[in-house]
Design brief:
This protein is α/β, with parallel strands linked by helices and 285 residues long. The protein contains 11 helices and 9 strands.
Amino acid sequence: MTTRYPVAGKNVLITGAARGIGAATAVELARRGARLSLVGLEPDLLERNVKELGDGHIWVEADVTDQAALDAAVARTVAELGSIDAVLANAGIANFGTVRTADPDAFARTIGVNLIGVYRTISATVPHLADSRGYALIVASLASFVPMPGGAAYAASKAGVDSLAASLRMELLPFGVDVGSVHPSWIDTDLVRGGEAALPTFKKMRTQLPPPANSTTSVEECALAFADAIERRALRVFVPRNGRIISVLRALMMSASAARLTRRRVGPDLAQLDKENQAQGATWR
């Protein structure tokens, strides 16, 4: 039987909580009795979300790339809620386009939010997690294991997140803090919808990926998986569950034979993706 650590009465800080997975997971955790600190960049949405959650929750505007702002958000969380029992490091963005044409600053921004932002989040919260012998759930991706052509920045950031979570897990174990990583496939969020609407070739390439890497999961189903992971203090979680096969088959999918197949199947699409990306010049979150 899986051991559960109910979140009722526990304080959970969520980054990237204004919309998408972060906002939906907050709703599910609040339903289970947790008190939430919602951290993000869109104050109007954060305030609305907290009002909808009801009494006992707070929101703080902070950018995970700004250590001072993040430290202040953590300090306010502890001052108002009393402690931090769990952290969901969820803030993330994506940009698309090949290395040949993509803006290096866009690459750096994605790494800064998705990877360094996670490090900053854990750095700011770990003293309080040690006090509570708490739990951190870090959002990686199936792209941690198998990158998609045209998505180098996102894949690199999420591969780094997976390795970071593994290192943190070993470092924090002596302090009673558990660290888990969660690896979603495509979730029906603004990030995915925005990318597909602006870049039709991205949508085409995504749907041609082998199962389960081409599946889309509802944000509500994803939130349930995230909340369950926090309550189980899970080590590694896949959304959907059959995404685990991607990590198991990584060596095969990264082989020379797979590279030749990829070149034949998506090579012609990359030039079109670059044209669409250069026309948009956008980053999605």
